Amino acid sequence: MHDKFVLFGHQHLVVIALTFAVPTVLAGVKRRRLPDADPLFRWFFAAVLIGTWIAWYVLFIARGWLGLGNALPMNLCDWATIALIAALIRPSQKTYELAYFWALAGTMQGLVTPDVNFAFPEPQFIVFLLGHGAIIAAVVYFLVVKPAQRLMDRFRTEPEPDAPTKDCPECLSSIPEAARRCAFCTAEQPGFATAA
Question: What local confidence, expressed as pLDDT, does residue 195 receive?
């Protein structure tokens, strides 16, 4: 027999901490070490979500818990999982927004106040908290990676490798040929002077 689950006990707090730490670390790894790893990480989250969803139904069937009352209609976390898997595999603003709001509205509540009876290593504990934690973790990953990437793209000072460049007459830095100002010294470029 497993120990009873303790709300905000050490196991519960570890799961909550990992839910936010894992996507933050993956985002840092993507940014600093593996800039092309975003598809790999998105597929990883999608695989975890699909796996825990299947495991949840297998557990319910094996224990005789699956019935019309708890299988249909699907709950908010199921819909968040579907939207998030779609957003992870084929990113779009609409699927991400659905997953974001559904995850924060329902899944976060499920993670903070889980409906489990026993603590680790009980399969219900593992599957429930892994599934809900993975939903929140994937949303956090999107929250950290996408805005950070847009911000870095916006403030990039180096031109694309194959883009035509010219040298700034003030600081001699290489800048895009169509630049109106130098990204390094902010000097206005000849032929693009602003009207006063």
Answer: 55
Q: How far apart (Å, rounded) are the C-alpha atoms in residues 45 and 173? A: 41
More confident residue, 39 or 31: 39
Residue 88: how many other CB atoms lie within 10 Å: 25
Q: What was the pLDDT predicted at 54?
A: 93
Domain range summary for the chain, segments of one domain joined by +: 10-154, 159-196
CB atoms under 10 Å from CB of 29, counted, come to 13
The whole-number pLDDT of residue 156 equals: 64
Rounded distance between C-alpha atoms, residue 104 and residue 106, angstroms? 6
For residue 153, which amino acid is it?
A: D
CB < 8 Å & 24+ apart, contacts of 35-44? 38/145, 41/141, 42/88, 42/89, 42/91, 42/138, 42/141, 43/88, 43/89
